Amino acid sequence: MTALAAGSLPALLPSSLSPAEVEERLSDPSRLARVAGDVQPPEGVRRSAVLVPILLHDAPTILLTLRAATLSAHAGQVAFPGGRIEPGETPEAAALREAAEEVGLDPRLPRLAGRLPGMVTGTGFHVVPVVALLDPPVTLTPQPAEVAEMFEYPLSRLLDPAAPERRSGVFGGRNREYWQWPHETQTIWGATAAMLRSLALALRD
């Protein structure tokens, strides 16, 4: 069981936002609307949703997980809590359910701020990111079969336009370009990095 409390985080970078500023900016529909529009899911693609939890410490952070190495999809990758949307579920309901299952987040705690644009991953999922605000302290219990590690990423890094790098690589025999965010020990790339960039565009001036 892990308690996420104020006062145990990396130093605040000069360009960070206060919790009140984060909440104010994400309550403005025009900010989420100015991010590039949704990619519509092709026929037969698997529908899924993730929760993008922002912890409103004095220096706000974003909760990320490292997926267990034994999983059949995206094993060992940095991700947001999330998974498949079940029949009859909204993306919001699916994201909250999956976060409860993966990291033990009480679904009554998050305040949902809105959706980021959906995207289709290279592995055939259409993912809807649901942004949620959380007031610390928050006690979480990760499910070892799904989550190898949890960590917090400083939201202040999202405000630096120079932080994410555009890279390319060959995946499945095809050359693909992708975003990657800096971190001391983890590789934050692919769909998760693209969602972080969408959130960054919504928060920046």
Automatic annotation (TrEMBL):
Keywords: Hydrolase, Magnesium, Manganese, Metal-binding. Transmembrane segments: none annotated. It comes from the Bacteria. CDD domains: NUDIX_CoAse_Nudt7. GO terms for molecular function: coenzyme A diphosphatase activity; metal ion binding. Its cofactor is Mn(2+); Mg(2+). Residues 45-175 form the Nudix hydrolase domain. Belongs to the Nudix hydrolase family. This is ADP-ribose pyrophosphatase YjhB, NUDIX family. It comes from Muricoccus roseus. The lineage of its organism: Bacteria, Pseudomonadati, Pseudomonadota, Alphaproteobacteria, Acetobacterales.
